[in-house]
Amino acid sequence: MAAIAVLGFGTVGSGVVDVIETHRELFAQRVGAPVYVKTVVDVRDFPDSPYAGKIVHDFAAVEDDPEIVTVVEAIGGRRIARDFTRRALAAGKNVVTSNKELVAYHGTELFALAREHGVRYLFEASVGGGIPIIRPMAQCLAANEITEVTGILNGTTNYILTRMINASLSFDEALKEAQALGYAEADPSADVLGHDACRKICILASLAFGAQISPDDVRIEGIDRVAAEDIALADTLGCRIKLLGRAQKLDDGTLYISVAPFLIPDGAPLARIDGVFNGITVRGDSVDEVLFCGRGAGKYPTASAVVADVLDTLRPGNAERRIEWGPALPGRLADCRQVSHRYLVRVHGDVKVALEAAEKLFGYIDVVPCDGVSIFDGAFTTPAPIPEGLLLARVEKMRAAGVTVANHLMFL
Amino acid sequence: MAAIAVLGFGTVGSGVVDVIETHRELFAQRVGAPVYVKTVVDVRDFPDSPYAGKIVHDFAAVEDDPEIVTVVEAIGGRRIARDFTRRALAAGKNVVTSNKELVAYHGTELFALAREHGVRYLFEASVGGGIPIIRPMAQCLAANEITEVTGILNGTTNYILTRMINASLSFDEALKEAQALGYAEADPSADVLGHDACRKICILASLAFGAQISPDDVRIEGIDRVAAEDIALADTLGCRIKLLGRAQKLDDGTLYISVAPFLIPDGAPLARIDGVFNGITVRGDSVDEVLFCGRGAGKYPTASAVVADVLDTLRPGNAERRIEWGPALPGRLADCRQVSHRYLVRVHGDVKVALEAAEKLFGYIDVVPCDGVSIFDGAFTTPAPIPEGLLLARVEKMRAAGVTVANHLMFL
Q1: Which residue of A119, A408, B100, B399 lies most exposed, with the fewest beta carbons within 10 A?
Q2: Alpha-carbon distance A408 to A204, whole Å?
Q3: In B21-135, where do the E strands start and end?
Q4: Is the sign of the CA dihedral B251, B252, B257, B262 positive or negative?
Q5: Residues B89-111: what's their mean pLDDT?
Q6: How far apart (Å, rounded) are the C-alpha atoms in residues B361 and B391?
Q7: Is the Cβ pair B310, A284 closer than 8 Å?
Q8: Measured between alpha carbons, how far is residue A34 from residues A4, A30, B107 in Å?
Q9: CA–CA separation, B257 and B201 (whole Å)
């Protein structure tokens, strides 16, 4: 008998309990012993739940229960979740989590603690919901030096952008719709400003490059500045705008990690991953590029990944199978301002004057036709990649000269 | 020191040696001990190869070498490969393979032998080249009851169909081009007739449903009957034709395994996986659907998957981590003739007479406009799914009445 505890009975936690309890027979067969949820820890009561009898309020009931082999942490955040995770690991229990924030910020510490106590800390569900990505990267692509990971990692923003593209909604309309459908939270800032995608790309980057990369060190840009005009311009350029998390090993060996809305050519693998779906491409020196996609969030897809990890902790030969990374290496991250991209720049107001000012500064620009946008909008692209620092300096100069620069976007 | 032997120094075998020898430092770090190729077995000599000194002609040199921990079988086929695999397992060595034919036909036997000798038989590279699929299905989706696996599993036929669709080539022209580019063999029958895709879907089906499914029991249809006219009709219907391997658990619990060219709606995830790329969707009761895609063949992508398995055999806690299935269960496969699909039927000759005959037999048909095909071609679709047996009987009746039925294709 393998007894499991679940911390937090919200969407993910209750999904995990459902999946374990409705697949008892299948799982008993797969791991060689019956698996069941013994205890659920939550501050709330759930008198109407079929699992009401399993609910306790005190984490000590899990910590002190020698029968519990594996603990699922579905609390979220970095405070209580971290405390309970440390205590569970110290008590000799495996911990499985969907908490990207905790893994992204404190992965190294928790891996070390797990190792010290001969147990595991697993986090397949922290990125891409139900999409298998952590284990495939750590194991199936182990023969590769990974050079790039790029992904649509946040379903909320992908839904908003997809609706702006396909239904010509404004950002605000698309956000309201996403909230009404339960795809966006009342306070959508962690999604819209790119923080959620940032935590996820940090986990993938840490795994790909073997050292902790903190979300605090990443260049983040959300989708809050993306306007209907940008969507229309992207279309003119044969591109779609997607919020991407990117982790690249540059030629000089430094790592460039970024989160931003990118212009993606329509034929690229990620261009048509729409709605709440996530997609992740991984490039390695032997495998070339592989793409994983599916539902990046949601109760059961996320529970699918959590429970796969739970089953893995119950298999023999478990303790030595580590998926982890080492401590941060100083000086390893590239200076964003030195990294070059091609850009689309949108100006507003007196378009003729603005484009003349741009041409003077940039030397040569490709003007983008703005039919169907508005007569007050103009746009151009840089014909060659230029460093972000230089782009920003020139944008500043244009602004100083009285030009309204409405937005600038990077090409993938 | 972990010594590896490679059997067969062809495309895959030499790729494996390259990948191991050029990543020595990385792999030593990943598995905790240096990894190197000690011996390569081939009937040929390779005097110009940098690895000429490793080549031996007698398998006994591997079998009797206590230093060799893991053997890579890259011979192919079912005769010598099976013999050497059995001997290597019996000698207490792990075996890693890219040989889909051997795994599809003799997986159960070889898993049992591996188990008996406390070693592993791994086969990630047997399906989808470098795309991680075997381990993600066995581990990351372990929380799911898998209900369907559908894939573009053969790069050669996908290249041919893509060129027929995108460049309006005939089947013969596209095949010749694929041969000139090295994507198709001089004798392309195993690819074109669907046998290669069949072995791969059998491996995925055996894994998904836990019991050996033999390629001999599968309904196979190749792409040799797909004509330019079918491609044009598919386009009219908003579809693309792809050779798919499908494994489905039907409502009555039986398994339906098939290989055939299917009409896929243009918006479906597999519709735009083109050229030599492979794509596989897996549907599970918790995760909904996930898609994996990438290069399904080629020297280094395949070597990437083989070497990932090699590294896995060198990790601690190895012997107990089994990825396998049980023996065949009789009576588990569905009767193909009872399974229903919607069909596109193309007739040739006197179109008016042919369609009248069809309408009489089918009761109601949707005639497909054939502008741009030829005045001697007509086509219709069945408005509702009908059992394949019934479709075939009606096609026979049409033929008996003198109608030329040129082709019939299933809708996904």
Answers
A1: B399
A2: 27
A3: 35-41, 55-56, 68-73, 94-97, 121-122
A4: negative
A5: 97
A6: 10
A7: no
A8: 11, 9, 27
A9: 8
What percent of chain B has a predicted confidence (pLDDT) above 90? 91
pLDDT (tens digit per residue) in B206-244: 999 999 999 999 999 999 999 999 999 999 999 999 999
**Residue type (1 letter), B181:** L
DSSP per-residue codes, A361-388: HHS--EEEP-TTT-TTEEEEE-SS-EEH
Token digits of residue B90: 């019996």
Length of chain B: 412
B-interface mutation test, from A14, A24, A304, most B Cβ less than 10 A away: A304
Closest CA relative to residue B8, chosen from B84, B110, B87: B84
Average pLDDT, chain A: 95
Shortest CA gap B365–chain A (Å): 34
Spatial distance between the Cα atoms of B50 and B7, rounded to a whole number of angstroms:
17
Under 8 Å between Cβ of A59 and A5: no
Percent of chain A with pLDDT over 70: 100
Residue type at B281 in one-letter notation = T
Q: Cα A17–A22–A25 angle (5° rounding)?
A: 120
Separation CA A168–CA B359 (nearest Å): 43
Interface confidence (ipTM) of the complex: 0.94
Q: Torsion angle of alpha carbons A106, A107, A110, A114, nearest 10°? A: 180
Bridging pattern class, strands B55-56 and A35-41: unpaired
3-class secondary structure per residue, B322-371: CCCCECCCCCCECCHHHCEECEEEEEECCHHHHHHHHHHHHCCCEEECCC
- Is residue A96 classed as helix, strand or coil in its secondary structure? strand
Return the H-helix or E-strand segment holding A355.
helix A351-362
**Could you read off the pLDDT of A231-243 as tens digits, one per residue?**
999 999 999 999 9
- HEC string for A139-200: HHCCCCCEEEEEEECCHHHHHHHHHHHHCCCCHHHHHHHHHHCCCCCCCCHHHHCCHHHHHH
Interchain contact, B305 vs A287, CB within 8 Å: yes
What CA–CA distance (Å, rounded) separates A125 from B376? 56
Q: How many CB pairs below 8 A link A and B?
A: 164
Domains and CATH numbers, chain B: 2-129+300-313 (3.40.50.720), 134-294 (3.30.360.10), 336-411 (3.30.70.600)
Neighboring chain B residues of A132 at a CB cutoff of 8 Å: 132, 136, 139-141, 290
Amino acid letter, B133? I
Q: Which of B287, B299, B323, B329 best tests the A interface by mutation, with the highest count of A CBs <10 A?
A: B287
Which of B131, B140, B287 shows the shortest C-beta gap to A135?
B140
With contacts defined as CB-CB under 8 Å, which chain B residues touch A315?
Answer: 320-321
Question: Residue B215 has what DSSP assignment?
Answer: G
